C-alpha cells in the first residue's frame, strides 16, 4: 500500500549521527590492540635494492614487521597485479613497502622510521601519452602472467592493462550519411574522493585460523572474495565486518589497508592489529579518479541528428589495475551519450602510469565521457546554429529506444529532465548582467549512467514472533541512506510499520552475498532481493490467515502488520496472532532471496546494464573576465530515479552530486612534482568546495518507472555528479566564447584563453 | 554419503579451548565499561521498609543506582511473577534488591555497601509440606493477577504456581486388575548446577534506543522474547549476542543478570554496564534444581507386570516460578517411567518457598521421578521376588508401544540398553568381596526423557561462491559440542567437506529464532532445520548441474563439493563451477528453514514429546558398613541416541552425565541455616565429585533410529544424568538391605540406617 515508499521519512540513523554516537570503524575498541603503521615508497618507480627491518624489530614494543619480500599474494578485482606490499619494485609514490605493529602508535611511527630502504630508481611515466609510447618504461613486465577475468584484456609488453572495443551498426556508413563530421578531443584530470573518514582496518587471526577484519570497506563480500583469492583461504575462514562508513564515493571498495593489517596480524599470535591511515596516506596511498583523454568523432546531419560516433578513450589507471579495467568498460559503454546514435565504434585503453592507483569514483568512469560528449554536443549545436537544448531534445533517447550499444532502454525520462531544468533555469530568457567585466550565461548538459551488470544481492529476512523484522543484508551505509531506503522497501513489502524493521550491518559470516555497495545499485538490487524474500513471508502469512479466516489467500488484505479478509474487514488478525497460531510455542517466518538480473553464465560486466539512469543539469552563472573566476548562481538538476523511495534522500543525493561535481570541475587537482610525488595531500592544499561555494540548487525528481525496479526505482547516487561540470563549462563558453577542453576551469586557464581571444 | 555423520571428528573448537584462547562473555572488552554490582537480600522473606541509595550515589565514580521501586517489569517464561529487583518485598536470601554501576569494580562494591536497606521480616517457609499447608505464608498474594501461558495453572491464594493433572486409561480399573498395589514415597534434594563459568552480562543502550546484551545465556531468542515482553519493546529493538558458554546444565537459560545490567544501562547514557556474578552470587542468586516429594502408588500382577500407577509430585520451585511450571510438566509426563503402563494418573504441584529459584537443570524435572520410579521398581522386584533386570525387561517399552501417556514411542531401544549394561557389568555373576565389613553389589536403573514440544528451530545457510558454507544458527555451544555436531550434519547434508563449514554464534539480529539450547533438543531440532535448509541448496545445485551435464536432476550425484552424473562419473563439476555457471559475476545459493514439529496451534508444552530418549545404567559398587562410604567400582551406561552423529561426543556426554549424576547422589547438598541463608555457597563447602571420585565408566551407544531424527539422531545430554544415582541406591540396597528414600546417600545417613537394621 506504499505507506513508506515515496515518503520522505527521516533517516533511521539520523539521531545517532548528529549526536556523534554512531560507531565508525576506528571507534571500535579491542583488547591487546596493536597499532599498525605503514612505510610507503618515497619514489615513483624503482627497484628495492636493500630493505632492512632489524633496527625496527629491536625497538621495544614492536611486535611485528612485515615486508613484501616474505609475501606472495597478488590482489585485484579484474586483474591480479597488486602485491600487498611492493615485492622487488615500487611503482608509485606512496606504495606500501613494509609495515610494523607496535603496542602504541608512537612506537609504530618510530619503528617505521627505523626501517632502512634503498632504491634503484627506474625511469617513471606519469602521463597517458608517454605511457602509450612504444619505448615507454613498462610498469608490469609480468602482465601476461597475471590472472584476469574474461572481461579484462591486458596487452602484454605494453602499459595497457585492458583494451576494450565495442561497436554497433556501421560507423563508416554512419559518417558517410552525415552532412558534417567533427572530431574533438577532451581531457579530464585525476581527483580525490575526499571522504571525511580515513581508511582503516583491524585484523585479528583467531586460534583456529579464522581471519577477522573490521574495516571501512564499502563492499564486504567483494573484499572477502578478493582477500580469499589472494590468501588462498576458503570464504568461510575469513570474516569481514563493517559499521557505518564516513563517505566512500567509490573509493572504499578495494584492497587497501585490509591486506596490510592481515599481513601484520598473521605475525602477532592472535593480537588484533589496527591501521588507520593519516590524511596524507589517504591521499597518496589509496585511490584517485582516472585522468582521461577522450577523442570523439561525430557525424551529424545539418538539422542536428547524430548519425555516427567513433570514440577513443584512454584511462590513466596509475600503478596497478585495481578496478581500472571495469571502470574503463563502463566509461566506454556510456561514452556515446544518452542519444539515438545508430552507428558507434568505441575503443578504450586502461593504461598504467607511475601514480597512485585510479579506481572507482562516483560515476565509475562516466563523468569523463560525459564531459567529452556534452562539451561536443554544445560545439555541434554552435557549429550548426541550433539551440543546445533543442540539439539534445532532437537526439534524446526515449522509452524503449535502442541505445548506442543497440540495447533498448526503459525508465528513460530524459526529455522530461531536460525540459524541467530548462524551465527552472528560464532557458528561454536572456541571462542579464549589468556589470561591464562580468559575463553571464546559462548552460545545460545531460548524462546517463549504467550499473554494473550482472551483479547479485542476497538477503535473509526474519519476521519475528511479535511481528517485528530483522533483515540480514550486506549493503553498506556509506552515508547514502541505504539503511533507511531498504527499511522503507521492506516495510511496504511486508506491510509492517517502519519502526518494526531492523537492518543489519554487513558481516560476511551471517549476512549473505552482495556484490558491492557501488554502481548506484543498492536500491535496485537489494530492494528487489528484499521484495522477493518478503514474498516468501507474505505468502506464508496469507496462507495462515486465509485458513484462520476461512477465505482464499487472494482475499486476504495485509495492512500495518495485520491481516483481514476483503469480505470482512472487521475481523483483524495481527501478525503476532498469525505466527502464534502456527508456532504457538515460539517461532518466526523466514524469507530468503538472491536477486541476480542476468542470463546464466554472464561474468563480471558480461551483460548489458540492467538499468540506465538519466538526468540533466542546467546552470546560470557569471564569469568575471578580469579574474577568470566563475560564480554559479543557480543549478537545476533533474534525475529520473524511476520512483523516489525516499524523495528527501533522493534530493540529498542530487544536491551532494551537484556540489561534488561542481567542486571537481572548479577546484580539484592532485598536484605532483616532477618526481611523481603528491605535493598537496591534505585539505589545506587540495581544495574542495566549501559551504560558501555552494549555489542555489533546485533538485528535481522525475519518476518514469523502471519496469524491473523495486516499485519502479533505480539509482541516482552516481549520475548526480556527472553533468554539472560540463553544464558549467558550456555556460562559460556561451558567456565568453572560451571553452577549455580540460575538465578543470582554473581561473588562470580561463583568463589566459580569454586573453588569447582578445 | 555420511562421510562426517557417525565419525568421531575432533571438536571444531578443541584447539581454541585447550589453548585458553576461546572467548567467553566476561573476556569481552568494551570502551567506557562500567562495572555493575548487585545488592542482594540478606533475609529470606520480608517487606522493604526503607531503601536509601543517596550515600551510594554520592561516591565518586558511581554512575547509576537502580532499585525495584522505580521499575515495573515482571519476567518469567510461563508465569510473569518475577521483578527485576525486589519491589516492596523480598522472597529469598540472595534476591536482587538494588544495583550500582561504577567506573571500577572496587567503587561498585563500596557503593553497594553504602546502600541502606531495612526490612520488616515476614514468616518464611522453606519446606514443601509447610508451604502447602492452609495457613502457610503466601509468597505471592498477587498470583491471580500474573500473566501466564495456557500450560501453567496457578492456584490463587496458595503457594502453588502450577498444578498439572493428566491421566491415561482408568487407574482405578488398573489397580483393581493388580494382584498387589504398593505405595511408596521418595524425596530429592535441591542441588546446584556448578558451571565453571559464572553468569555475566554486558548491556548497552545505543543512541537509537537499541538494547544490546552480551550474555552467558544459553537461549538467546527465549531471552530476547522474555526481556522484550517485560520491557515492552519490540524484538527488533533488543539484540542478544552469545559467545562460548562455560557450562550451563540448564542453569543459564533464564532472566538472571541480563535484566539487572539493562536496568543499569538505561541510566548510563550509552555506556555499557557489565555484571559478572561472584561464585557466591551464582550459588545464592541464580538457580538450583527442584527439591521434590514424589508419591507413587503402583498396581502390579504377581508375575511382575505393571497395571496402573497413580503419582503425586511436588516440586519446590523457590521464590519465583522461572521455569518451574514447565519443569513440573516434563517431570510429570516422565513420572510413569519407560514402561508399559496401561492406566496412569498424575497430579503435580509446583510450589513456592522462600528459597533461591529452582528451575531448569539437566534432566528438566526427570531425574527426580527417575529416582522415584526406579527405586520403586527395585522394591517391587524385591517384593515379588523377581530379578530387577527381568522386572524391567518384562515391562520395558518397545518400538511403537504407547507410552504411559498413551502416545506411541519410536526409537526406543530400551531393552538393548538394559541388556548391554547388564552384560557389561556381569549382572549374572555374583559381586564378590572378601573384606568383612565391606558389602558389594550391583544395581541397575533405566530412564527416559522427553524433549520440550513443540519447539522451533530456524536456520539460514549460505553456500558461498567458492563452495564453502556459512550457517546462521542461534544454537549455543555450552560445551556439549553442538557446533561440531551441527557442522557434521551440514557437511553431509550439503555434501561438502567439514572444514568448509562455519557455524555462527547466536546473535538475535541475524541468526534466526531457536527455541532454546536445552531439553537435549539441538541435534534433533536444529539438525532437522539444517537438513531442510540444505535441501534448498542441494536442489538448486542439482538443477544447475543437471542442465550443465544434460541429465535429469535425479541422476546427479553430489560428493565432496562436486557434482557428476551417475552415467558419467568422469565429468565432475565443482560447486564453485556450478555456482559460477549461473552467477558468474559473484553470488551464492541460499537455504532457509524453520523446523517446528507439531500440529498448528500447540503452545509451550502443548504437544506430546516429539521424541523420547531411553537409557540404562548399571553399577558395581562397594559400601563400607563401618563408615557408610560408597565406592563405585564400575559404571556401564547405555543410551539409545538414535544415531550417534559424533560417537566421541556422545561418549563424552554420557561420561559427563554419569559423573554429574553420581556426584548429585553421593555428595551434593545446598545447606541453609534456620533463616534460609545458604551456608555453603562455594566450592570449598559445596562438594562435587572430583577426578579422584570418578569410577571406571563404560559408555555404550545404542542406535535404534528415531524416524523423525536427522539421520535418525536424537538427544543424549539430559538422560545421561538420570539413572546413575538410583542405580547406585539400588546396588546399596541389594548389598545392605538398606535403602534411602531421599536422593542423597550421605554416609552418616546410610550408617544410621545400617545401625537401625542391626
Comma- or semicolon-separated keywords:
homodimer; 758 residues; alpha+beta; Aldehyde Oxidoreductase, domain 4; Aldehyde Oxidoreductase, domain 3; 3 domains; 7-stranded mixed β-sheet; 5-stranded mixed β-sheet; 27% helix
Structure, explained:
With 758 residues, chain A is α+β, with helices and mostly antiparallel strands. Chain A folds into three domains: 14-21 and 462-595, 2-Layer Sandwich (Aldehyde Oxidoreductase, domain 4), CATH 3.30.365.10; 31-122 and 201-275, Aldehyde oxidase/xanthine dehydrogenase, a/b hammerhead (Aldehyde Oxidoreductase, domain 3, Alpha-Beta Complex); 291-452 and 606-757, Aldehyde Oxidoreductase, domain 4, CATH 3.30.365. In chain A, 27% of the residues lie in helices and 25% in strands. Chain A is built from 18 helices and 28 strands. In chain A, strands 3-7-1-14-11-12-13 form a seven-stranded mixed β-sheet, with helices on both faces. Chain A has a five-stranded mixed β-sheet with strand order 9-17-16-15-10, with helices on both faces. In chain A, strands 18-26-27-28 form a four-stranded mixed β-sheet, sandwiched between helices. In chain A, strand 22 (556-559) and strand 23 form a beta hairpin. The longest helix of chain A has 28 residues, at 522-549. The first copy, chain A, is globular, with a radius of gyration of 27 Å. Chains A and B meet through helix 6, strand 19, strand 20 and strand 25 of A and helix 6, strand 19, strand 20 and strand 25 of B.
CATH H-tier superfamily of the largest domain in chain A: Aldehyde oxidase/xanthine dehydrogenase, molybdopterin binding domain
Largest sheet of chain A: 7 strands, mixed
What are the segments of chain A in which pLDDT stays under 50 over at least 5 consecutive residues? none
Average pLDDT of chain A works out at 96
Beta-strand percent range of chain A:
25-35%
Rounded to the nearest angstrom, the radius of gyration of chain A is 27 Å
**Oligomeric description of these chains:** homodimer
Termini separation of chain A comes to: 63 Å
- CATH class membership of the largest domain in chain A: Alpha Beta
Which two chains touch over the largest interface? A-B, 76 and 76 residues
Number of strands of chain A: 28
What is the CATH T-level topology of the largest domain in chain A?
Aldehyde Oxidoreductase, domain 4
Strand order in the largest sheet of chain A: 3-7-1-14-11-12-13
Described by the principal axes of the CA atoms, the overall outline of chain A is globular
Structural domain count of chain A: 3
Under the CATH scheme, the architecture of the largest domain in chain A is: 2-Layer Sandwich
Helix share bin of chain A: 25-40%
Amino acid at each position: 500500500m506504499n505507506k513508506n515508499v515515496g515518503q520522505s521519512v527521516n533517516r533511521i540513523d539520523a539521531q545517532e549521527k548528529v549526536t556523534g554516537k554512531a560507531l565508525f570503524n576506528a571507534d571500535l575498541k579491542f583488547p591487546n590492540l596493536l597499532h599498525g603503521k605503514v612505510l610507503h615508497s618515497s619514489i615513483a618507480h624503482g627497484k628495492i635494492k636493500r630493505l632492512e627491518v632489524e633496527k625496527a624489530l629491536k625497538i621495544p614494543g614492536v611486535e611485528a614487521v612485515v615486508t613484501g619480500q616474505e609475501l606472495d599474494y597478488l590482489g585485484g578485482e579484474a586483474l591480479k597485479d597488486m602485491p600487498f606490499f611492493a615485492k622487488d619494485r615500487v611503482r608509485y609514490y606512496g606504495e606500501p613497502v613494509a609495515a610494523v605493529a607496535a603496542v602504541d602508535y608512537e612506537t609504530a611511527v618510530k619503528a617505521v622510521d627505523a626501517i632502512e630502504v634503498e632504491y634503484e630508481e627506474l625511469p617513471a611515466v606519469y602521463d597517458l601519452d608517454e605511457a602509450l609510447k612504444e619505448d615507454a618504461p613498462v610498469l608490469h613486465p609480468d602482465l601476461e602472467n597475471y590472472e584476469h577475468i574474461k572481461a579484462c584484456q591486458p596487452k602484454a609488453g605494453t602499459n595497457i592493462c585492458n583494451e576494450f572495443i565495442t561497436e554497433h551498426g556501421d560507423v563508416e556508413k554512419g559518417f558517410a550519411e552525415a552532412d558534417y563530421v567533427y572530431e574533438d578531443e577532451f581531457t579530464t584530470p585525476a581527483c580525490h574522493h575526499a571522504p571525511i573518514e580515513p581508511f582503516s582496518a583491524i585484523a585479528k587471526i583467531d586460534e583456529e585460523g579464522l581471519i577477522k577484519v573490521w574495516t571501512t570497506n564499502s563492499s564486504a563480500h567483494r573484499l572477502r572474495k578478493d582477500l580469499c583469492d589472494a590468501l588462498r583461504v576458503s570464504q568461510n575462514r575469513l570474516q569481514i565486518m563493517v559499521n557505518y562508513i564516513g563517505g566512500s564515493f567509490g573509493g572504499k571498495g578495494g584492497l587497501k589497508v585490509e591486506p596490510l593489517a592481515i599481513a601484520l596480524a598473521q605475525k602477532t599470535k592472535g593480537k588484533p592489529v589496527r591501521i588507520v591511515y593519516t590524511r596524507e596516506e589517504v591521499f597518496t596511498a589509496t585511490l584517485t579518479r582516472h585522468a582521461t583523454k577522450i577523442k570523439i568523432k561525430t557525424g551529424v546531419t545539418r538539422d542536428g541528428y547524430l548519425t555516427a560516433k567513433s570514440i577513443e578513450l584512454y584511462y590513466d589507471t596509475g600503478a596497478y589495475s585495481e578496478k581500472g579495467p571495469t571502470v574503463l568498460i563502463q566509461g566506454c559503454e556510456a561514452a556515446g551519450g544518452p542519444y539515438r546514435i545508430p552507428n558507434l565504434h568505441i575503443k578504450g585503453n586502461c593504461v598504467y602510469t607511475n601514480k597512485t592507483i585510479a579506481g572507482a569514483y562516483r560515476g565509475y568512469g562516466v563523468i569523463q565521457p560525459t564531459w567529452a560528449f556534452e562539451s561536443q554536443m554544445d560545439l555541434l549545436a554552435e557549429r550548426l546554429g541550433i539551440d543546445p537544448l533543442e540539439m539534445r531534445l532532437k537526439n534524446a533517447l526515449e522509452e524503449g529506444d535502442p541505445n548506442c550499444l543497440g540495447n533498448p532502454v526503459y525508465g528513460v525520462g530524459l526529455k522530461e529532465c531536460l525540459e524541467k531544468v530548462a524551465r527552472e533555469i528560464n532557458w528561454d530568457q536572456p541571462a542579464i548582467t549589468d556589470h561591464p567585466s562580468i559575463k553571464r550565461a546559462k548552460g545545460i548538459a545531460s548524462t546517463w549512467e549504467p550499473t554494473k551488470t550482472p551483479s547479485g544481492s542476497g538477503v535473509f529476512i526474519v519476521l519475528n514472533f511479535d511481528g517485528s523484522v530483522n533483515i540480514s543484508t550486506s549493503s553498506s551505509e556509506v552515508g547514502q541512506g541505504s539503511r533507511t531506503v531498504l527499511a522503507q522497501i521492506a516495510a511496504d513489502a511486508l506491510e509492517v510499520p517502519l519502526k518494526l524493521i531492523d537492518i543489519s550491518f554487513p558481516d560476511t559470516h551471517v549476512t549473505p552475498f552482495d556484490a558491492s555497495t557501488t554502481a548506484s545499485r543498492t536500491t535496485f538490487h537489494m530492494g528487489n532481493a528484499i521484495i522477493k524474500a518478503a514474498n516468501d513471508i507474505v505468502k506464508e502469512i496469507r496462507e495462515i490467515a486465509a485458513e484462520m479466516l476461512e477465505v482464499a489467500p487472494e482475499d486476504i488484505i495485509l495492512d500495518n502488520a495485520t491481516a483481514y479478509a476483503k469480505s470482512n474487514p472487521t475481523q483483524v488478525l495481527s501478525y503476532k496472532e498469525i505466527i502464534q497460531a502456527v508456532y504457538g510455542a515460539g517461532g518466526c517466518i523466514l524469507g530468503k532471496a538472491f536477486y541476480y538480473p542476468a542470463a546464466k553464465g554472464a561474468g563480471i560486466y558480461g551483460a548489458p546494464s540492467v538499468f540506465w539512469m538519466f538526468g540533466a543539469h542546467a546552470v546560470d552563472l557569471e564569469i568575471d573576465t578580469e579574474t577568470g573566476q566563475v560564480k554559479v548562481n543557480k543549478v537545476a538538476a533533474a534525475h529520473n530515479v524511476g520512483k523516489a523511495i525516499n524523495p528527501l534522500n533522493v534530493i540529498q543525493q542530487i544536491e551532494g552530486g551537484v556540489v561534488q561535481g561542481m567542486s571537481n570541475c572548479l577546484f580539484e587537482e592532485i598536484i605532483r612534482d616532477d618526481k611523481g610525488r603528491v605535493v598537496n595531500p591534505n585539505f589545506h592544499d587540495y581544495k574542495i568546495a566549501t559551504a560558501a561555494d555552494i549555489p542555489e540548487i533546485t533538485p528535481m525528481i522525475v519518476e518514469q518507472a523502471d519496469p524491473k525496479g523495486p516499485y519502479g526505482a533505480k539509482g541516482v547516487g552516481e549520475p548526480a555528479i556527472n553533468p554539472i561540470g560540463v553544464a558549467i563549462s558550456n555556460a562559460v563558453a556561451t558567456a565568453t566564447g572560451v571553452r577549455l577542453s580540460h575538465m578543470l576551469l582554473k581561473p588562470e586557464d580561463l583568463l589566459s584563453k580569454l586573453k588569447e581571444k582578445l
